[in-house]
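Practice problem 4.
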């Protein structure tokens, strides 16, 4: 009787350890994905700094004496970015959905990861792409974030 109780306790502990191991494995995979995503996003941004525009973005607004600096701050504050990882097979559908929902008011940049990563859901090793979405405006930002969360 005493051995049976001890065996039940050990079974419960073993189940908890197994659950914790699975959670830690998923957390590790997510952190590895974030690391790759940040590394590639950093190269996106470095590449964009090298090719800075040589034109004025709002020449009419900047020369207009009626508009002050705070107006320019408000205009600039609505530019946003979202980055993340997407499976290779879902890139086309993702891009189509963004195009349709945001009516083309987004700029999407992709880069393939050097190595295949394990999918946290299935455990399958697959190719991933890092994406960086640039958008203008709060409403489009909300749409982009909803699409990315799916």
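Answer key:
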């Amino acid at each position: 009787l005493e051995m049976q109780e001890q065996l039940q306790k050990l079974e419960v502990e073993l189940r908890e350890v197994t659950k914790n191991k699975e959670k830690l494995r998923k957390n590790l995979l997510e952190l590895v994905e974030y690391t790759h995503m940040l590394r590639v996003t950093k190269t996106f941004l470095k590449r964009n700094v090298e090719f800075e525009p040589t034109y004025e973005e709002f020449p009419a607004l900047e020369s207009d004496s009626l508009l002050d600096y705070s107006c320019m701050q408000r205009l600039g504050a609505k530019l946003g970015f979202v980055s993340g990882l997407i499976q290779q097979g879902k890139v086309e559908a993702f891009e189509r959905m963004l195009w349709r929902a945001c009516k083309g008011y987004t700029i999407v940049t992709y880069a393939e990861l050097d190595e295949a990563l394990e999918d946290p859901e299935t455990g399958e090793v697959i190719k991933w792409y890092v994406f960086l979405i640039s958008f203008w405006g709060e409403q489009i930002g909300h749409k982009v974030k909803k699409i990315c969360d799916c």
